[in-house]
Specification:
Elements lengths: L9 H30 L6 H26 L4 H31 L7
Helix pairs in contact: 1-2, 2-3
Pfam families: Phasin_2 (PF09361)
Protein name: Phasin
InterPro entries: Phasin, Phasin_subfam-2
Length: 113
C-alpha cells in the first residue's frame, strides 16, 4: 500500500516556517530578559530557578526544531516518525533534567546563597 503524500502548498509551508521563526525569536527575547532579571536577584532558590530556566529554554528549542521538521514532512508516515522521535527525546530529556535537579537539591550547599 502506498502512503499518500501530504499535499501542502509551498506558500503554507513558508508561512509556517516564518511563524516558527517569529515565535522562536520572541521566546529567545523572553529567555534573555528572564536570565538577566534572575541574575540580579540573589536568593536561596536562584540557582535552581536558573537551572529550570535553562531546561525550559532547551525544551523550547527542541520544540521549534520539531515543528520545523513537521513542516517539511512529505507523508503521514514521516510525520509520525518525527513525532515519535520527538516524544522519545523529550522523555529522555525530562528524565535527565529531573536527575540533575534532584542532584542539585540533594547536594549540601547547592541551591543556597
Amino acid at each position: 500500500m502506498i502512503e499518500p503524500k501530504l499535499e501542502v502548498p509551498a506558500e503554507l509551508r513558508d508561512l509556517a516556517e516564518k511563524t516558527i521563526d517569529q515565535a522562536e525569536k520572541a521566546f529567545g527575547m523572553f529567555f534573555e530578559a528572564a536570565t538577566k532579571s534572575m541574575s540580579s536577584v540573589p536568593g536561596a532558590g536562584t540557582e535552581v530557578s536558573k537551572q529550570a530556566l535553562v531546561f525550559t529554554e532547551q525544551n523550547m528549542k527542541s520544540a521549534f526544531e520539531h515543528a520545523r521538521k513537521l513542516v517539511h514532512a512529505t507523508d503521514l508516515q514521516e510525520a509520525m516518525r518525527i513525532q515519535s522521535d520527538f516524544l522519545r527525546s523529550q522523555f529522555t530529556s525530562a528524565g535527565d533534567h529531573m536527575r540533575q535537579m534532584t542532584g542539585s537539591l540533594m547536594q549540601p550547599g547547592k541551591g543556597k546563597s
